[in-house]
Design a protein that fits this description.
Elements (H helix, E strand, L loop, with lengths): L1 H19 L3 E8 L10 E8 L2 E7 L9 E4 L4 E4 L1 E6 L15 H7 L1 H4 L7 H15 L2 E7 L7 H4 L1 H9 L2 E6 L7 H21 L2 E7 L10 H11 L2 E6 L6 H5 L2 H6 L7 E5 L5 H9 L3 E4 L1 H6 L7 H7 L2 E4 L12 H16 L7 H7 L2 H6 L17 E4 L12 H8 L5 E6 L2 E5 L2 E2 L4 H21 L7
Parallel strand pairs: 1-4, 1-5, 6-7, 7-8, 8-9, 9-10, 10-11, 11-12, 12-13
Antiparallel strand pairs: 1-2, 2-3, 5-14, 14-15, 15-16, 16-17
Helix pairs in contact: 4-6, 4-18, 15-17
Length: about 475
């Protein structure tokens, strides 16, 4: 009952929101569209109305007068960042297992505390994670949700929280593979129908399959792929992440090929340790990967050779992963971490340039997620998802190259405003529709309760 009432409320809210928005002109901005082939910044204007960009160009706008005007002189206008792989709920567990690699880290978090999640936990934690990403300039995220030990209603709180946070999102559904094939097909049919309506009036852009059958319930892995193809959904798979498991993971590649897990609708989260053959076959079949530098560094997973992947023709996007394995949802830090590590690895300062890594965290990620017609660059017809960045606050010096200033010198602190679908949701680091202090306090209370239950049952203390 709660979900039905919530969805009706959301549909009403967003239908009203788009209709009520006034047309707005942003003038005198230094604009980086990050559209394909458009590498040069220019001083100009952008007009948006009813949630979408309707005009954009150099110089002064000569069209119909707008209802409101924003003067963005000496500021950079850019598309909002995308995170192509995120576990929003993990925002509640930062700093956990500080000296552990992937599987010991999973033991410390998922397998220690996951069974204690109760009503409202996924909702609160996911809402916190989504709003935290928004304040860091991420306007679209792939929520690679995780079921843990939750019941279906508790688990779907992750979807409910994303629906009200305001951030555009793709929901990666983690099916309960303990169900029969008939039950799984029925579950997906109902979910596809339900989300088809949500996509029309809410920030939800798409439904996806969070495919986990390759490492458990392997008999269900082909079914996950079949369901994705049946409904035209993308699927995302954690693969080739931990260095110590690289040989074990590589042995599963023939199963991926056989079961239809290598094609243009598939992206691999991490994909750090492919062989040359795996890389070649993945690229030839149109598959993609999501690069998560902060998380890969934190968990000592290794460094993806992105220049090699791009040369091979593999699609590449970027993500900030879970906030308990990257600990900060900052795409500026993510870009720097990745770019600098690659330059050190290749001993070549031109191996990746600022405009390239910016596009990886925006348009290229949108392409991997199949939402590039909606978001990822500043172009007429797309959602008005954008950031106004002020390099002078805090001061970063003179701007010689807007892309280089963003990547080398800026941080989330330089973001003045964050807009999603033409609505300002963040101003100077503050979420405008929520009290983050209250959400943080509720989060801490809930985590303390979970920790207390785990400790009472004799589970190892890991926080």
């Amino acid at each position: 009952m709660r979900s039905c009432k919530l969805i009706i409320c959301i549909l009403t809210l967003f239908c009203w929101q788009y209709a009520a928005q006034a047309s707005t002109l942003i003038k005198n901005a230094t604009i980086l569209t990050l559209a394909e082939g458009d590498d040069k910044p220019f001083v100009g204007y952008m007009v948006f109305d009813k949630g979408h960009i309707i005009a954009l160009g150099k110089g002064e706008y000569q069209g119909k007068a707008s209802d409101s005007v924003i003067d963005a002189s000496n500021k950079i206008l850019m598309p909002g960042f995308l995170s192509g792989h995120s576990h929003l709920w993990q925002s509640a567990f930062r700093g956990i297992a500080a000296d552990k690699e992937l599987y010991p880290w999973l033991q410390a978090l998922h397998w220690t505390y996951g069974e204690y999640f109760d009503t409202g936990d996924f909702y609160n934690f996911t809402l916190h994670g989504a709003l935290d990403q928004l304040t860091h300039g991420i306007t679209t995220t792939y929520n690679h949700s995780q079921r843990l030990s939750a019941t279906e209603p508790h688990y779907l709180e992750s979807l409910e929280a994303s629906l009200v946070a305001g951030q555009h999102f793709i929901f990666g559904y983690n099916a309960n593979l303990a169900l029969s094939e008939k039950e799984l097909r029925s579950t997906f049919a109902n979910l596809v129908k339900k989300t088809a309506e949500l996509k029309k009036k809410t920030p939800m852009l798409a439904l996806s399959v969070n495919a986990v059958g390759y490492h458990q319930y392997q008999d269900k892995f082909p079914l996950e792929m079949q369901i994705a193809k049946q409904y035209g959904l993308i699927a995302q798979i954690h693969y080739l992440e931990q260095y110590e498991r690289r040989f074990t993971d590589r042995k599963q590649w023939p199963m991926f090929m056989k079961d239809g897990a290598v094609d243009s609708n598939i992206s691999y989260a991490h994909f750090i340790h492919p062989t040359d053959r795996i890389l070649k076959e993945a690229a030839e079949h149109g598959a993609s990967m999501i690069w998560n530098p902060l998380s890969n560094g934190r968990l000592a997973s290794g460094l993806s050779d992105i220049p090699k992947y791009l040369e091979a023709g593999l699609g590449v996007g970027m993500g900030v992963d879970g906030a308990a394995s990257a600990d900060i949802a900052d795409p500026f830090e993510n870009m720097r971490m990745g770019m600098y590590a690659l330059r050190m690895q290749h001993k070549n300062a031109s191996v990746m340039v600022p405009i390239e890594v910016l596009r990886l965290h925006t348009l290229k990620t949108a392409k991997v997620l199949k939402v590039d017609k909606l978001v990822g660059s500043l172009e007429p017809g797309k959602y008005a998802d954008f950031l106004i960045v002020d390099p002078a606050r805090p001061g970063t010096g003179a701007v010689f190259d807007a892309a280089a200033t963003l990547v080398f010198a800026c941080s989330a602190a330089n973001i003045e405003d964050v807009y999603v679908a033409g609505e300002k949701l963040v101003e100077n680091g503050t979420a405008l529709k929520y009290n983050m202090a209250d959400i943080q306090a509720e989060l801490v209370k809930r985590v303390d309760q979970i920790r207390g239950q785990a400790k009472a049952d004799g589970k190892a203390e890991a926080l």
